[in-house]
Amino acid sequence: MLTPRPTPSQEPFAKFAKTCDLAQPACGRCQRLRIPCVGCGTKRFKFKQERPVSPAFRAELLTASGSTSPISADRPAPAAALAIKLVPSNEHGRRRGALVSILSISDLRYDISSCGNFLQELPQRMGRNPALDASIDALANAYTALRTQTKSPEVFSAYANALRCLRMVMETSETAQTPETLCAIYLVMICQAWIGNPDDQYVAHSEVVVHVLNCIATNNWTGKFETQLFVTLCMSILPESIYNPKINLGPWFKKMVDDFIPHKTTSMKNGGPGPALSMLTFARLIEFVRDSGGTGDATEIEAAYEGIMREVAQARKTLVRLFPDTSGKLISEGGGRPILPATTGGERERVHMLCVAQLAMLLAMGMLVNSVLGAVAFDNRELQEQVAGFPDELVGLGRVVDQYRPLGAGFIPVCLLVGCVSTTNQAHLAQMTEAMKTYSSSPMQMSWEVWSTEMRGSFQTLSCGTNKDSAKRSLVGLGKPMGNPWVT
After folding, report:
1. pTM (2 d.p.)
2. Are 110 and 407 in contact (CB under 8 A)?
3. Half-sphere exposure of 2 toward its Cβ, with a 13 Å CA cutoff?
4. Dihedral, CA atoms, 399, 402, 404, 408, nearest 10 degrees?
5. Calpha distance 395→439 (Å, rounded)
6. H-type helices in 170-241, by residue range?
7. Whether the Cβ atoms of residue 359 and residue 277 lie closer than 8 Å to each other
8. Rounded to the nearest 5 degrees, what angle is found at the Cα of 38, between the Cα atoms of 34 and 41?
9. Which domain of life is it from (predicted)?
10. pLDDT of residue 345
């Protein structure tokens, strides 16, 4: 590109516009403009950016850096220290952050993993299902209400929004029969237990869960999240299926158990569950209790009972081996709280909690199956003597983990209520009922009381209506009488 030549009138000024003549003490340009000459190529102005720093933040930076020199415009604060603290986010990001904060809590009293280990995978599944997102928001608000023991209007608003989104999702089979929808139903059940009042009318969602499980029986769900979700939901509906005829565990249940549950059991040496606490054992017991016409066969129940008694002994040995101090503190004559064994950290306390939970569930299950067998057998006092010490032991376990209420010790009310349903001894019933008063404000209390009352009626029907000639067995050889092994 050619540079235009100056006109004749511009030629006198062209030589001044091109370069400076570098004349001293003042160049020709500066003399012509009548301004001070500072020399050629010298920067005349310097723009400095000064960031205001509050006195409190300046003191914090000085303390962190260990320096005593002031922070000013000449010595600005480090860029990392002046970074924006509030990261821009939207509603979805705030929900995810609230959920991650809840999942990161390791305090056994408020550790939400007691409601299911699959909850740890919820953050990465957000955004796929509106019902799941709304239920997570409701769970976060309900969790705050649980910890602070205050129920704000936002808690009920979030719960109502979760129900509304869940109804919308359930309208189509494509969105209803998904793992995210099942998880949303379960989270709504948890919120209902946390923010509900004992006087509220209990509304169960178990029938909806069973309906969805029945519809997805043919789906190929093999992931870890789906497996843990299935096990948790089944364990939540099995107790109610004893007395609720609308919850029918048909052939689909056995198929799903075969598909989802590995055909092996965890070692009991470190507090893992054994065969007696398997899903099929519960299902067979429920089927036998609901079959009041006398067509059921008690052989499988007897075999399950023998397995439970063996696992009770094994779980007790495991607890004594890992935590020797516990054995002498389960029964407190004065009614005080036993001292937990010395621990080396949170993980050891968690293992201790799992061992106690396993033994408590086995004791409750043993009392339950014992009462079922006693209802269909001849008058056999040996059966009652085998579990005579179980109520005392169960109450003692409740005192051991009492300090981990409400979530960490949430299994104790379930076991105590099963024990209350199973026993006919008025002294044992009064003892466990008194222990239940400690958990009168615990989550799920009202739902537990509902199905415990119904289960007691089912056992009375079983005892009166079963054709004992076809179901009774000779149960004398099932085992030896077992008192409380902790009392010497």
Report:
1. 0.68
2. yes
3. 3
4. 80
5. 12
6. 173-176, 179-195, 206-215, 224-241
7. no
8. 120
9. Eukaryota
10. 46
